[in-house]
Write a structure and sequence with these properties.
Blueprint: H1 5-9, H2 14-31, H3 38-53, H4 66-76, H5 83-86
Helix pairs in contact: 2-3
């Protein structure tokens, strides 16, 4: 069972969460064998990574923690599941 603790602990803005979700979806699309439009997907992945990295929220007190970046990736990972989540 997944927890929503990260949402309570870190007040992520909606646009940052959506961009991180799009990054994961693009990464998964690029990770399939022989992806269609690979160059376009790589450009999109880079564009999304830049938007995430330079988002203004990271310069707020809540965003200073490296754990906040890790938690955002965990919360938005979607299809990925850790062994602990599966148990």
């Amino acid at each position: 069972m997944r927890s929503n603790r990260g949402v309570e602990r870190y007040p992520y803005p909606d646009d940052l969460v959506q961009t991180q979700r799009e990054w994961h979806a693009t990464y998964r699309a690029l990770a399939v064998p022989r992806p269609r439009h690979a160059a376009e997907l790589r450009r999109r992945l880079l564009h999304l990574a830049v938007r995430i990295h330079w988002h203004p929220w990271w310069s707020t007190p809540a965003g200073w923690s490296p754990a906040a970046r890790v938690e955002l990736r965990r919360l938005t990972g979607g299809a990925r599941q850790t062994d602990a989540d599966a148990a």
